Structures are given as structure tokens and as C-alpha cells.
Task: inverse folding
């Protein structure tokens, strides 16, 4: 067995993605391929990971808008709102603290 750094791929022909270690039709781990690539204790840890049973495509989503789409305007509002919360928090906490005792 030829193992790369940190138990990862040792050469260019070996799988690079997690999906490469999964049989897509059966939605099960390709245990033989895992053993070819990783140390036994690493394979044991990988096999404890449950595979998602619903096959959906991944999608990036911006949580600061209702539709999930990023816009510069929404990014600006998010940053300015976060900054104002920090300034307000610092101002309120420092105003309650006496400067001299």
C-alpha cells in the first residue's frame, strides 16, 4: 500500500474527491478503494460517516437575503449592520463602567 501525506492520495491517479469513494447508484462507500488509499484506522473513521440518502445538488446560498442570492448591496448592509452592532455594544458596555473608583 502506497500512502501519501496524512493518509491522502499518494499519486495523481488516486481519487481526489469524497464522491470518488462512493458508489453513486448504491450510495455506499467503496470500501476496497478506501483501503487502497487510507490507513485502516482512517478507513474505520470514514465508514462511521453516514451517507446522505437524498441526492440533491449542492447550492450556495447567501443567508442575508430572502431569496438567497448575494448582491453587493446586501453585503454592504450586512457589514455595516455588523459594524454598528459592535460599536453599539462597545459604547454601552464602556458607558456603564466607571472610569475612576
Result:
Amino acid at each position: 500500500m502506497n500512502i501519501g501525506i496524512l493518509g491522502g492520495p499518494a499519486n495523481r491517479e488516486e481519487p481526489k474527491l469524497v464522491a470518488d469513494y462512493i458508489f453513486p447508484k448504491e450510495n455506499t462507500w467503496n470500501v476496497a478503494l478506501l483501503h487502497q488509499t487510507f490507513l485502516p484506522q482512517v478507513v474505520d473513521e470514514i465508514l462511521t460517516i453516514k451517507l446522505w440518502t437524498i441526492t440533491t445538488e449542492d447550492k450556495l446560498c447567501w443567508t442575508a437575503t430572502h431569496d438567497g442570492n448575494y448582491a453587493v448591496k446586501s453585503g454592504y448592509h450586512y457589514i455595516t449592520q455588523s459594524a454598528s452592532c459592535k460599536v453599539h455594544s462597545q459604547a454601552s458596555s464602556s458607558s456603564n463602567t466607571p472610569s475612576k473608583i
About this structure: The first strand starts at residue 22 and ends at 23. The longest helix spans residues 72-95. Residues 5-47 form one domain. The chain has a mean pLDDT of 80.
